[in-house]
Specification:
The complex is a heterodimer of chains A (157) and B (144). Chain A has 157 residues and is an all-beta fold. In chain A, 3% of the residues lie in helices and 42% in strands. Chain B has helices at residues 21-24, 35-44, 69-84, 93-106, 113-118, 124-142; strands at 2-4, 6-17, 52-62. The chains are: A mainly beta (157), B alpha+beta (144).
Chain lengths: 157, 144
């Protein structure tokens, strides 16, 4: 059983027989443990495996006992190679990336994501024809949307 | 290509392959999947799980936050030690660790160290890393 700690901020009212305090709302902090639902267990017949082509195969049974099998094609059939050029420029640094895909790759590269410290400070981002370099977000990256704030180069297929 | 006011370090870049229209469709009636299979599906189709990671030299240390030489010297030393722990830099391990210790202890760049750092490296990552560290040392030399 997993215990999930939840921080609760509760307004506490002073007791009515304490007239001075009764007019003052005070904020108290209470920590209590609540139970979190246990992680789901696999049902009979539930399997996830890789096939010989590198795709995920999901197998399971429906409520009526019917066998189901689904294939999820992965996006990892690429052989990325990257060369980086770094040069000082007045007031900063210029980063230039040369991205290639290996001759034995089975998919084109669609997207290149680069985690960037202070993406809002990236300027003059350019990409080759047929590629798209989105303007980085202007807010500091948050854990839940950090990939929205990357220097993100998209082939735009 | 882009310009930024940040000095380089090694980060993990992510690359994703292109799916044809046919392959992009996941013909899964998710309501038919058990909760366990559904969780696996979500886990295996996140951006991180669906990408090929590759170490790359990228902007990592904002210049505005490295306003004194001690801070920058520590950042460079940490970067050199990080590289020393990577298999790709095994042949340079002692050089990287010795240089990291020197820079961190002295808080400065010895004359000519940037040229020494820029010299080695044969793979694209090694060359970019050493070039980047040399550039950081040149910046360090300008700080008070």
């Amino acid at each position: 059983m997993r215990i999930h700690w939840q921080l609760m901020i509760l307004p506490l009212l002073a007791a009515a027989d304490e007239p001075v305090l009764a007019q003052q709302r005070q904020i108290g902090i209470q920590i209590r443990a609540i139970e979190k639902a246990p992680p789901p267990e696999p049902q009979p017949g539930d399997v996830v495996r890789l096939d010989e082509d590198g795709n995920y195969i999901f197998e399971g049974r429906t409520a009526s006992g019917e066998i189901m099998q689904y294939r999820v094609v992965t996006r990892k059939k690429i052989k990325p190679e990257i060369r980086t050029e770094i040069e000082p420029i007045p007031g900063g640094v210029r980063y230039t990336y040369n991205v290639a895909n290996g001759s034995d790759a089975r998919q084109p590269i669609e997207r290149f994501l680069l985690p960037a410290t202070r993406p809002e400070s990236l300027i003059n981002a350019t990409a080759p024809p047929q590629w798209y370099a989105p303007t980085p977000c202007r807010e500091p990256p948050q854990p839940e949307n950090r990939y929205n704030c990357h220097a993100d180069v998209d082939r735009g297929n | 290509m882009f310009n930024t006011r940040a000095l380089p370090g090694i980060v993990q870049a992510l690359f994703r392959g292109y799916l044809s229209d046919k392959d992009a469709v996941i013909e899964v009636d998710t309501w038919k999947l058990s909760e366990w299979l559904l969780e696996r599906l979500f886990e295996l189709t996140t951006i991180e799980a669906e990408a090929v990671p590759l170490p790359v030299v990228a902007p990592k240390y904002p210049i505005s936050e490295l306003d004194d030489s001690r801070k920058l010297a520590s950042a460079i030393a940490a970067e050199l030690r990080g590289a020393a722990s990577m298999a790709e830099f095994q042949q340079f391990q002692s050089f990287l660790l010795d240089t990291a210790s020197y820079i961190e202890t002295s808080g400065k760049a010895a004359a000519g160290l940037d040229r020494q750092l820029a010299a080695p490296g044969t793979t694209p990552l090694q060359r970019a890393f050493f070039r980047g560290m040399a550039l950081s040392l040149q910046h360090l030399a300008q700080l008070p």
